[in-house]
Every structure is written in C-alpha cells, then in structure tokens.
Amino acid sequence: MTNPQTRTVDAPGATVTYDVYAAQSAEPALLLIGSPMDASGFAALAAQFPDRTVVTYDPRGTGRSPRSAAGEATPEQHADDLHRVVSALGGGPVDVFGSSGGAVNGLALVARHPERVRTLVAHEPPAAALLPDRTAAFAAIRDIRDTYQRDGFGPAMAKFIALTMLKGPVPADQAERPGPGAADFGLPAEDDGRRDDPLLAQNIVTCTHYEPDFAALAAAATRIVVAVGAESEGELAYRGGVAVAERLGTAAVTVPGNHGAYLPAEYGMGGDPAGFAVALRKILDAS
C-alpha cells in the first residue's frame, strides 16, 4: 500500500487533517472513521484494502486537527467536517466504515448529506438515547464527564471503562456507585490538571445523547448496515447498534471480535485487522 498523502480542510472552528491512501480502482473511496480516535487507529485496517483508495482522518479536537471553538463537539459538527473532506476528495459518493463515535457521526453525515455516501457500515454506535435504560445511562455518562472535570483523567476513564464493559441494562444507581480505582486499569490516579481529553471533555455526552434523524435516514438512498461484535453482546455500544438497526427496520449484522476488533494488537483489545477486514469487505461487496 502506498504511503498516505496528508491533507487538510478548513471548517468553522477547526482545521481537519486527513490521509489519503491512493489506489487505482473503480470503487468509491473508503472512509474509515472513529471518534474521538484519530487516523492512527485505522492504519492497520486501511492496509487491508490496497485495492481501494482509503481515507482516514483526525476528528476535530483530536490528533492533528486543532480546533479553536470551545465547548463540546457535536455529531452534526463532525458530519459537516466529513462532508468537507468528501467534497475535497471530489464529492463522492464514498463508502464509510464508522466505529463507535464514528458510527454516530456517520449516521449524522448520511442524515445531513446523503448524496455523499453510497454505503455506511455503522459499527457499534453507542446510541444510549435509544435504549430503554437511557435515563440511567445518561446519568452515568454525565457522571463520567463530571468526574473528569472534578478529579481528572484517571478516575473518569476508570468509570468509562467500567460502563463500557457492563453487560446488560445500566443499573438505575450506576451514577451514584463509587467507580473503580484508576490503578485497577493501570491509569494515573493523580490529576495532571488538564481538561482537554477529546473523549471525556468534548464528545462523551454529545455522542451518546445523539438521536439519529431516522426520517432522513429512511429517505436517503444510502445503504446503511449496522454491525455489532460477536464478543460485545450485552454491552452498551452493542445494544445501541441493535437499537439503531431496529429503528431502521433492519437487523444488525454480527462481525468478529469486540468493540475494537479492527485495531492492531498493540492497542490491547485483542483486535484482528486482517480478519475484521474480511468481514467488512463482504459487507461492502454486497452493495
């Protein structure tokens, strides 16, 4: 696979950096997107598609995409950023694989700019707004953000990991329960004073509280496939994916692995990019 060309596009309140792995192909470009994970997390998966032009990017406020706007970033902002990237590529339509917050932003992109996307594969969107236990989930998520603002990264991330690993509905008193110790997950217990973490400061609430515009999604010509991991059953993002698929009138497709199945081994999530790419290619080739 060729080395990527790094480019930027200006957006209100941010400069968005993206990488283009160019290939001679009749297929649309394939965008691999996360949030707040940046392009580096998709390099191993991108390498599995040497026959297609692949594009990865750093969401606003993450990695190489500085932002000047204060406050939390919204799925709508991310969708408009992606629209600008696709426009800079020639306008599309493109295929999109979005995972976690990237899946949420992909749904927002299709709702706002459906002409830009041929196929969206939305992998485990953490759509807490669609769950029957949304009140408890929302309270637990806001507690994570508040813990970050009060105590810093380690204690907040420990609560986040515990919530994402939880199987089944979020208990009504989850937000009131003492969180696990930061050291239990190898995280720093001391507060370094920073409050600029892309997940905990910018995206955790807006992403999970976002409710897709299902009327717009139904009207779009875009093919939307919701994917969930075989090892994630019962977790919040898995349940969110199932809920999105149900609202779309489809069934979620089961793919190998867990929430980070496409990540290389060094990310510590037991990922298998090559195996995951086989499943992703099968979905894309069915379009």
TrEMBL record:
Transmembrane domains' residue ranges: none
Cross-referenced SUPFAM superfamilies: alpha/beta-Hydrolases
Residues annotated as domain AB hydrolase-1: 44-165
Top-level taxon of the source organism: Bacteria
InterPro entries the UniProt entry points to: AB_hydrolase, AB_hydrolase_1, AB_hydrolase_fold
Keywords assigned: Hydrolase
GO molecular function: hydrolase activity
Region named Disordered: 57-77, 171-192
Entry protein name: Alpha/beta hydrolase
Organism, scientific name: Phytohabitans maris
